[in-house]
Amino acid sequence: MTYIRGDKAQFDEWEQFGNPGWNWDTMPEYYKKVETIFPPAPAQIQVGASIEPRCHGTSSELHVAFNPALENGPLYDTHRDSWAVMKEGVNKDVNRGTTKGFSVCPQTLDPRENKRWDSATAFYWPIQSRQNLKHLNGTVSKLPWKNTNAVSGAQAAGVEYLGPDGKRRTAKVGKEVIISAGALRTPLVLEHSGIGNPHLLKQKGIEVVVDLPAVGENMIDQALSSLFYTTNINIKGYTLYSTFVTAADIYGSTIDKVAKDTEAKLGKQARQLAQASHGGLNASALERILKIQHNVIFNKHATLAEILSTAQGDKIGTSYWDLMPFGRGSVHMRSIDDVDSPVIDSRYFYIDFDLATQVESGKVGVEFWTSSPVKKIIMGQFAPNATVLPPGTTDEQWKEFLADSSSSNSPAIGTASMMSRELGGVVDSKLKVYGTKNVRVVDASVLPMQVSGHLTATVYAVADRASDIILGRPW
Ligand SMILES: Cc1cc2nc3c(=O)[nH]c(=O)nc-3n(C[C@H](O)[C@H](O)[C@H](O)COP(=O)(O)OP(=O)(O)OC[C@H]3O[C@@H](n4cnc5c(N)ncnc54)[C@H](O)[C@@H]3O)c2cc1C
After folding, report:
1. Residue 240 and residue 106: Cα distance in Å, rounded?
2. Which ligand 1 atom is nearest residue 161's CA?
3. 71 alpha carbon – ligand 1 mean position (Å)
4. Is residue 140 within 6 Å of ligand 1 at its C-beta?
5. CB neighbours of 200 closer than 8 A, spacing ≥ 6?
6. 454 lines ligand 1 (CB under 6 A)
7. Ligand 1 and 459: CB distance under 6 A
8. How far is the CA of 342 from the centre of ligand 1 (A)?
9. Cβ-proximal residues to 262 (8 Å cutoff; 6+ apart), any chain
10. Which pTM was predicted?
11. Which residue has its alpha carbon closest to ligand 1 atom 52?
12. In sequence order, what E strands does 217-332 have?
């Protein structure tokens, strides 16, 4: 998987959401602590792979490297030179806290075996035979409660799950339960256990244990769009070139006006999003959050869009996405009998700025493919073809195309956000679910704001930090 962490400014704002000690000063230690970087080989350096060693770990479980089959023709130079024409320079290490610029993406893999390095390979298989580790297969349905004391916090007695044979079983808990079902499933476990928006829980016939309306709300996904061409060269090697651009890069001379207009609408948009959440989100709290996000985008210049080039055979192109949408979606349980099929409302492009950013990012991509020297290798538009997006496509045509063709980029976060309770948080800064005594969440659902990265890097770092918190180590 692509391994990219994000921008310093985004992590620094986590503190403002009510999470002391969660910022860019403290995160790199955890990124490094879980990582072994394999510096690029000389042949890979020739085709753009580069790192700053000080930003990386050298002796841990997660193996990070550049693909051994990196394309070794002139494609990297062609890309670099065209991005240079568009004033985007080379980023020597996309993982150093600023993603802006053009770079070859590192991945979670072991270059010695050219083997994908997933979470099981890195963290589970090496310790699976430990005597104090027991693995049970099944789908968790809910947490039964030992008590539901509102003052001391509800205490989970165990974890109820459906075994592979379809039988319902309960595993007893000794100390605490850690839910890591991901941003699209963790809210379901909480809701089935009676933690969530009372309005929704009562509707589904679930008894309310903790009144926590934001469970399943605050979902921030990214919508992905693509633009592919046929090329006159035959590309055999692996290509994964990323260009991260800021709002100023995207909006050019109109940036000040765009920033002002966007800020002026945040109050109204927060009210609309809150209304759509059936009481899950509070409008004034959300407005505060959106203003923090606005500041990160327009004043702290975190990158706002990623434009990722890939190629194979005679096809070449870019996928692109708005990294930090203002829209907030939701994921909730479907029914009391169904523990595994969430109702998802992504609310892509619910906010006009999000759609405008996607349009402008698409145009940056078109400008790139039609600039020198890269345009020399382009034969024609492949998907969408030139009938759908003709030269001189209007903004309205762009919007129609994107609304019809975009899909999830799959980095959903925020559905059990680590924020103060008044802002709409579900877990506190120690990842403990509000109103409970012994339930934590450790997965992408706790991330309160999108990062200009690919999420697994950050999920691993947050998980390692969670282990320090759980074990009571200083952090
Ligand atoms: C197609 C695709 C491509 C991606 N590419 C990249 C990439 O290149 N780089 C990158 O960094 N990120 C990538 N991502 C995003 C990344 O995979 C996620 O952000 C990340 O996996 C989130 O981690 P998580 O631990 O929160 O959730 P998950 O990885 O989803 O883990 C949750 C786990 O909980 C299990 N589970 C769910 N519900 C239950 C239940 N009720 N009972 C028991 N178990 C349950 C699931 O089976 C799963 O194993 C990609 C995602 C997708 C879908």
Report:
1. 9
2. 42
3. 28
4. yes
5. 191, 278, 280, 332, 333
6. yes
7. yes
8. 15
9. 294, 298, 326, 353
10. 0.97
11. 410
12. 223-235, 241-246, 303-322, 330-332
pLDDT exceeds 80 at position 244: yes
Residue 89 in domain: no
Question: Does the annotation list 140 as a binding residue?
Answer: yes
The tokens describing 15, both together, are 């503190």
Question: Is residue 213 assigned to a domain?
Answer: yes
d(CA 306, CA 295): 19
- In sequence order, which ranges of 179-282 are alpha helices (DSSP H)? 186-192, 198-203, 247-251, 255-276
Domain extent at residue 298? 142-474
Q: 184 near 368, Cβ under 8 Å?
A: no
What are φ and ψ of residue 406, in 5° steps? -80, 150
Atom 38, ligand 1: which residue's CA is nearest? 181
Distance 182 CA to ligand 1 centre (A): 6
CATH number at residue 447: 3.50.50.60
Question: Does ligand 1 come within 6 angstroms of the Cβ of 142?
Answer: no
410 pocket-lining for ligand 1 (C-beta < 6 Å): yes
φ and ψ of 277, to 5 deg: -90, 5
Q: What confidence tier does 223 reach under pLDDT thresholds 50, 70, 90?
A: very high
Q: How many domains does the chain have?
A: 1
Contact criterion met (CB below 8 Å) for 142 and 198: no
Please count the residues of the chain. Answer: 475
Atom of ligand 1 at shortest distance to CA of 340? Answer: 41
Residue 446 lies in a domain: yes
- In one-letter notation, the amino acid at residue 258 is V
Residue 394, sorted as left (phi over 0), alpha (psi -120 to 50) or beta, turns out to be beta
Distance CA 85, CA 363 (A): 15
Does a structural domain hold residue 95?
no
> Given this model, what pLDDT does residue 474 score?
81
Q: What's the rounded mean pLDDT across residues 200-205?
A: 97
Q: What is the pLDDT of residue 475?
A: 76
Q: Does residue 189's CB lie within 6 angstroms of at least one atom of ligand 1?
A: yes
What are the residues whose beta carbons fall under 8 Å from the beta carbon of 320, sequence distance 6 or more?
224, 225, 226, 227, 305, 306, 307, 308, 358, 361, 362, 364, 365
pLDDT score for 255: 98
Tell me: pLDDT of 312 over 90: no
Which residues make Cβ contacts (< 8 Å) with residue 57, sequence separation at least 6? 31, 32, 33, 34, 35, 36, 37
Q: Determine if ligand 1 sits within 6 Å of the CB of residue 182.
A: yes
- What are the E-state strand segments in 125-218? 139-142, 145-147, 155-156, 158-162, 168-172, 177-179, 195-196, 210-211
